[in-house]
């Protein structure tokens, strides 16, 4: 069995991993950590959420970072505020025994001055959402001239969310000599463009089959007429009284409607979508994380970055337009070794959408 020590990490980091209860590296960690420690070569990694990719890029950077130097040495870009906070929190946990190390998360929808104050104190790693990162660069509060590592986490999602220009801007102001690490669950054209334009002869790591669903996830579908979609959803909730899951809808309005009906019908449910204020979203997410809420009805974008490992079910109230979104959705369950079920409710007309999905997930 490979251990974290075998991968070349120092004792302070191993100690933190022990504290966290990480016993052995995941596949992506086993592949990425020694590669990044040993080589400055750029890296393209295929990895889905839940595979341990945060540690896969953070640990080798922490291993090599200069603790005597207070300037920003690594910038990690992530698609959502929640994911940025989560990554920074993980890095804090990994670095508890590294004296002199500091990390900051910068993201929109939150007071910029507090973030500037934190940057002014000197941090070695910044985790940011693309918009706020560019804003801080333009205000000359975030200096990336000494950056040695640039991580693009969930690159496909950042591009899906329209952050192409921001990524270009950050890539432009970071030194040519940096090492770029790009993590993505899928590789559509736009991600390839970034890789082609900004990466030099990248090494490639594939953790598990490309685009494939996790082996821990069982996939089910139910065919019902449109009129029976909501009653079918209720039945699914009824036969799974211990459900702890996310119901994915396609629009904000649909999300709100389904959540309202479930609440009215007495289920422990709430909605998460972009029309809620950040404060409202925080409250809902906190209730869901603490499991005082069993069912979260959400849009794809709003659910990104909600880091919960023990989901029993992911339900596609309606199938997404893009197949990649299906693998992202179902990848929210069956994480960290537990089993999960991904359910799709489909109308007879939507059945044709199933075979491309079956082909991609191989199930
Ligand atoms: P990530 O893909 O980085 O979001 O990680 C998914 C979850 O797995 C997180 O809750 C991590 O804390 C956890 N995790 C990551 N690596 C390991 C490991 N080697 N052993 C146990 N848990 C891990």
How is this structure best described in words?
Helix content is about 40%, strand content about 15%. The protein is globular and about 60 Å long. The chain has about 375 residues and is an alpha/beta fold. The strands form 2 sheets. A 7-stranded parallel sheet has the order 3-4-2-5-6-1-7, with helices on both faces. Strands 8-13-12-9-11-10 form a 6-stranded parallel sheet, with helices on both faces. α2 (about 25-40) runs parallel beside α3 (about 55-65), α3 crosses α4 (about 80-95) and α6 (about 130-140) crosses α8. The chain has helices spanning about 10-20, 25-40, 55-65, 80-95, 110-120, 130-140, 155-160, 165-175, 190-200, 230-240, 250-265, 280-290, 300-305, 325-330, 355-360; strands at about 45, 75, 105, 125-130, 150, 180-185, 205, 215-225, 245-250, 270, 295-300, 315, 340-345. The chain has 15 helices and 13 strands. It binds adenosine monophosphate.
User: Radius of gyration, rounded?
Assistant: 21 Å
Strand count, sense and barrel status of the largest sheet are:
7 strands, parallel
H and E string: HHEHEHEHEHEHHEHEEHEHEHEHEHEH
Shape: globular
Q: Tell me the number of helical segments per DSSP (H or I, 4 or more residues long).
A: 15
Helix content: 40-55%
Report strand order across the widest sheet: 3-4-2-5-6-1-7
Structural class: alpha/beta
Strand content: 15-25%
Taking all residues together, what is the mean pLDDT? 92
Span between N and C termini? 29 Å
* Count of strand segments: 13
Uncertain stretches: none
């Amino acid at each position: 069995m490979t251990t974290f020590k075998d991968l070349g990490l120092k004792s302070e980091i191993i100690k933190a991993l022990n504290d966290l209860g990480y016993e052995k590296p995941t596949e992506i960690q086993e592949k990425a950590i020694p590669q990044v420690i040993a080589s400055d070569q750029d890296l393209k990694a295929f990895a889905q959420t839940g595979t341990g990719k945060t540690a896969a890029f953070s640990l080798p950077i922490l291993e090599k970072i200069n603790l005597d130097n207070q300037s920003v040495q690594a910038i990690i870009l992530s698609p959502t505020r929640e994911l940025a906070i989560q990554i920074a929190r993980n890095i804090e946990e990994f670095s508890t025994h590294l004296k002199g190390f500091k990390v900051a998360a910068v993201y929109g929808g939150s007071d910029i001055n507090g973030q500037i104050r934190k940057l002014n104190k000197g941090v070695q790693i910044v985790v940011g959402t693309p918009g706020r990162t560019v804003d801080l660069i333009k205000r000359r509060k975030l200096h990336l001239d000494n950056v040695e590592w640039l991580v693009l986490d969930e690159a496909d999602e950042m591009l899906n969310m329209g952050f192409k220009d921001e990524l270009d801007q950050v890539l432009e102001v970071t030194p040519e000599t940096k090492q770029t690490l790009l993590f993505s669950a899928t590789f559509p054209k736009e991600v390839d463009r970034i890789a082609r334009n900004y990466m030099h002869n990248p090494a490639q790591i594939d953790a598990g089959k490309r685009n494939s669903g996790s082996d821990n996830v069982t996939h089910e579908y139910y065919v019902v007429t449109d009129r029976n979609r909501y009653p079918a959803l209720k039945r699914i909730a009824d036969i799974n009284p211990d459900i702890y899951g996310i119901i994915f809808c396609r629009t904000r309005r649909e999300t709100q409607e389904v959540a309202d009906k479930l609440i009215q019908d007495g289920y422990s449910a709430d909605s998460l979508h972009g029309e809620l204020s950040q404060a409202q979203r925080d409250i809902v997410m906190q209730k869901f994380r603490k499991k005082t809420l069993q069912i979260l009805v959400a849009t794809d974008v709003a659910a990104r970055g909600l880091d919960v490992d023990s989901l029993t079910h992911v339900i596609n109230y309606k199938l997404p337009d893009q197949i990649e979104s299906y693998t992202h959705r179902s990848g929210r369950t069956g994480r960290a070794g537990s089993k999960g079920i991904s359910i799709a409710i489909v109308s007879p007309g939507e059945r044709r959408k199933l075979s491309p999905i079956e082909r991609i997930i191989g199930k």
